[in-house]
Amino acid sequence: MTPKSPMDRRTFVRSLSAAAAASLAGPAAAAARAPGRSALEPVGIQLYTVRSLLSADVEGTIAAIAGIGYKEVEFAGLAGRTAAGMRAILERNGIRAVASHHSMRDVREGWPKVLEDANALGQRYVLVASLGGADRASLDGIRAVADAFNRAGEAAKAAGLQFAYHNHDFEFRAIDGVMPYDLLLERCDAQLVQMEMDLFWIVNGGQDPLSYFAKHPGRFPLVHVKDRTADGQMVNVGAGVIDFRGILGRASQAGIRHWLVEHDRPSDPLADVRASYEYLRGI
């Protein structure tokens, strides 16, 4: 179907709040959480957020991230380091790699190296970060991408890894009456191709994350935790209108295992990721 744009913000927030109340109010949820421990722990970060700092000082930036409290990272490149070298830096700082972002070119031309590096880093997931050009221009392009994803996922599985795809908002703009994201979910093998839901971008595309969790349970092991104002600005987590408590209330249904903070355009990267971390620690 054609997505509504802009989305009815009040309806979206009410739906998330209702889910939160139903899922978090019960004693079982409270009992499952250790005193003083956030239900979101361990909180991770997509290192694209601090790319400007990594380009100048890899070791210092990773140490700073660890100092804030982050325990997991997702890569968008290795800032000139080898996989083994980067893993050593992470281990010195008590951080583990869980995932990495890659391009369709990597899938088509360099996938064995991607899988090799992923295993060297000790991560579980390898992802395609986005689509461009002909890959997203038509339904035939989306179908071809889905088939390529299935092949990449099969190779990842053979290497002991899990393939996934990260959305933006173009996937929620209908082409000939079909939503590209829905076509990907339908055509991709659920065992070979899972999803990393970017919460900002799906809301920006006029869609409700909870609806996708309900329609495709267990399909979303990773989420990008990023916030959005009512008028569409990307802000630190907790400074916008997305109800993360509501999303947390559906984490089991969605299959979420990793909560990865991201901000595409941070004004002060370390201050921004600290603010997001502190908000999430309070949930």
- Radius of gyration from the alpha-carbon trace, in angstroms: 18 Å
Judging by the overall fold, what is the CATH architecture of the domain at 9-31 and 42-49 and 125-281?
Alpha-Beta Barrel
Query: What does the overall shape look like?
Result: globular
The multimeric state of the shown protein is: single chain
CATH C-level category of the domain at 9-31 and 42-49 and 125-281: Alpha Beta
* Percent helix: 40-55%
Please indicate the percent range of residues in DSSP E strands (runs of 2 or more). 5-15%
Total DSSP E strands: 10
Would you identify the regions where 5 or more consecutive residues have pLDDT less than 50?
1-37
Straight-line distance between termini: 34 Å
What summary fits the major beta sheet?
8 strands, parallel, barrel
Enter the CATH topology name of the domain at 9-31 and 42-49 and 125-281. TIM Barrel
Structural class designation: alpha/beta
Structure description:
The chain is α/β, with parallel strands linked by helices and about 280 residues long. The protein has a domain at about 10-30 and about 40-50 and about 125-280: TIM Barrel (Alpha-Beta Barrel), CATH 3.20.20. The protein has helices spanning about 10-25, 25-30, 50-55, 60-70, 85-90, 105-110, 110-120, 135, 140-160, 180-185, 200-205, 210-215, 245-250, 250-255, 270-280; strands at about 45, 70-75, 95-100, 125-130, 160-165, 195-200, 220-225, 225-230, 235, 260. It has an eight-stranded parallel β-barrel, surrounded by four helices. A two-stranded antiparallel ribbon has the order 8-9. The protein is globular.
